[in-house]
């Protein structure tokens, strides 16, 4: 009886790479968490740090993958990025999607604020950010955690600081359809604050918190319900409509026709989270009408672009 052939084994190899010009901790992460995340993405690979060197051992194919990942992560660290576990997934996704180095996609910050740089972290986010540079009206559509509003606000703050616009206008539909503020208890501020609070929170992250009240008082930054846009022409402004899935078709048309000279509009929303009591969402309606206009762009983000906890991308 013939003996069974032994199972074919993957070729094992090892690579030693030296890290120069950047502190090791910026590559390794806190408690070597970045290295452990690279090992998760490259099964069978073991990475050992010694001094300023990393030794990568394991199956040849996975060792090559880990080496490519680490080379890009080192470039991110050299560019001043505080590399974390999420950057490993982002870098791997871009490498797999494009067959190219991810460092060119991820190293350019939109905004540097209070010691942190805000930048796209996935290929979809990079396309979204580029679209904001190239088009007057951009729709960012996708699930929670994809950075739709946050990246748009970073672009708005960067444009204001560069004096490309004179003011920032942030708006949301205050109540599902019709914005029936009169039916809610409290003052106007009490009524609208819960709906606009996420926008205020992001503003305080991106700007000097002491400066924000002054900009609000002078109207340089305006945060208001969508109903307050009616009858206005918004010139020289960077305008963001958030939670746009909760606008009716009439509200969406009203908002889009507020566009004035020297302005840019970003509309964000998640078409799977419509809270309208009745009728169609304006965000769903507008795609088939405006998608052929050159200076209007629709960018669709997906679970692959979620940059929160890894469980969030699995949930959405």
Polypeptide structure, described:
The protein is an alpha/beta fold and 316 residues long. The protein has two domains: 96 residues, K Homology domain, type 1 (Ribosomal Protein S8, Chain: A, domain 1); 200 residues, Rossmann fold, CATH 3.40.50. The chain is 40% helix and 18% strand. Helix 6 packs across helix 7 and helix 10 packs across helix 11. The longest helix is centred in the N-terminal third of the chain and has 19 residues. The chain is elongated, with a radius of gyration of 23 Å.
Q: Any descriptors?
A:
316 residues; alpha/beta; Ribosomal Protein S8, Chain: A, domain 1; Rossmann fold; 2 domains; six-stranded parallel β-sheet; three-stranded antiparallel β-sheet; 12 helices; 40% helix
